[in-house]
Write a structure and sequence with these properties.
- By secondary structure, the chain is an alpha+beta fold.
- Helix content is 26%, strand content 28%.
- It has one domain: Trna Endonuclease, Chain: A, domain 1 (3-Layer(aba) Sandwich), CATH 3.40.1350.10.
- 25% of the residues are buried.
């Protein structure tokens, strides 16, 4: 099989091809790397990971919880939103959790507690944010970054 070149009559620019942009794969890989680092960081600090990338089975389109963890000594249940960026542009990754994203995390956290987390329903909860800067792997943890009620 021969690759197409500009000299071929059938050649079309990448912007006009029906192939997915490679940027999406790069974004997914960046997010996955950040979540791996955040999970390891939490584990090193005594958190017990209960779930990663949890979404409601009946409707995954509602969103997902990046990490659900039990704080050291079972102090509280932490719902952790992980934000990852390559290079520190003008804004830090942990600052990118908008009010809309907060509402989505809260909705999915309530569904989690209603289905999977019944054993933790009486436990205090914390809505945490972890920002990860790559490639150096700098982690910033904001415990109780937003309130466990609709913003």
């Amino acid at each position: 099989m021969r690759l197409q070149t500009r000299q071929d009559r059938r050649w079309t620019p990448a912007s006009q091809r029906n192939t997915p942009a490679p940027r999406l794969d790069e974004r997914e890989a960046t997010g996955r790397d950040g979540e791996e680092l955040a999970a390891a960081w939490l584990t090193q600090r005594g958190y017990t990971l209960l779930h990663r990338n949890w979404s409601p089975a009946f409707n995954p389109a509602l969103g997902e919880l990046d990490i659900v963890a039990l704080a050291p000594e079972r102090a509280h249940l932490a719902f952790v939103e992980v934000r990852t960026r390559r290079l520190s542009r003008l804004i830090r990754p942990e600052w990118t959790v908008t009010p809309a994203k907060q509402r989505q995390v809260l909705r999915v956290a309530r569904l989690y507690l209603a289905s999977v987390g019944r054993a933790f329903a009486a436990q205090p909860v914390s809505m945490d944010v972890i920002g990860v800067l790559l490639p150096e792997g700098t982690i910033t943890h904001l415990p109780a970054a937003f309130r466990a009620e609709e913003p």
